[in-house]
Design brief:
- With about 220 residues, the protein is α/β, with parallel strands linked by helices.
- It has a single domain, classed as P-loop containing nucleotide triphosphate hydrolases (Rossmann fold).
- Helices cover about 45% and strands about 15% of the residues.
- It has a five-stranded parallel beta sheet. It has a three-stranded antiparallel beta sheet with strand order 3-4-5, with helices on one face.
- A hairpin with an 8-residue loop joins strand 3 and strand 4.
- Helix 1 crosses helix 8.
- The longest helix has 16 residues.
- It is globular and about 45 Å long.
Length: about 220
């Protein structure tokens, strides 16, 4: 099984862009675990999967594929390329409800580990919101990326179109509130290294993460 570099962090902390660049420089795979939650939300919205509610659901029929190549990232489900579709505001608004179902999180844990084990790569940078504590607590490198609320909102604003800015703050704060009931992503667990990117630019954030990885691997 590939070595897992586990990276957690809230929206706007830089975890996705930094994780992808770190994977690129190390020659590792890159796995965006949030994409699976978004894809499941998309599948529910499109009628492919029933809205998850039962504690014993297995989601065996969920058709999901994702690229681990940081230079050629894509997400597919039910024969459709949904790389862009899962980033639409309507999916962002529904993903917390889906992710909050315990059965979904159990399924996603297994899905993540299966994707890594089947990758045949030397290492995979796995980023999300409970990777260091639930999905891969035994990973040789575990990091938590954080940033102040103000900085995180500024970063997210740059990613969105003007018409989406009105709902940005509410979405980010509601997502933080919802996810904080499942995992504390603002304080590192024991053995998890903290990287606060509030006062770091992109390259500085990448170098900070690379330094920890190289030291521990």
């Amino acid at each position: 099984m590939a070595e897992i570099v586990a990276i957690d962090g809230p929206a706007g902390s830089g975890k996705s862009s930094v994780s992808k660049e770190v994977a690129r420089r190390l020659g590792f795979g890159y796995l965006d675990t949030g994409a699976a939650y978004r894809a499941l939300s998309w599948a529910v919205a499109e009628g492919h999967v029933a809205k998850p509610e039962a504690a014993d659901e297995t989601f065996d029929g969920f058709d999901y594929e994702i690229s681990l190549n940081p230079d050629d990232f894509w997400v597919k489900s039910y024969g459709v390329d949904i790389t862009n579709a899962i980033r639409l505001p309507k999916i962002a608004e529904s993903v917390s409800a889906v992710a909050g179902v315990p059965a979904v999180r159990r399924f996603m844990k297994k899905l993540t580990r299966d994707l890594v084990s089947q990758s045949e790569l030397g290492g995979v940078v796995v980023e999300g919101r409970d990777i260091t504590t639930v999905v891969a607590p035994d990973a040789p490198v575990r990091l938590l990326l954080t940033a102040s609320e103000e900085v995180r909102l500024e970063r997210r604003a740059k990613e969105l179109s003007p018409e989406d800015l009105a709902t940005l703050r509410q979405q980010v704060l509601e997502r933080d509130k919802s996810d904080s009931k499942v995992v504390d992503f603002m304080k590192p667990a024991d053995g998890v290294d903290l990287v606060d990117t509030t006062n770091l630019d992109f390259e500085q954030s990448v170098q900070a993460v690379l330094s920890i990885i190289r030291e521990q691997l």
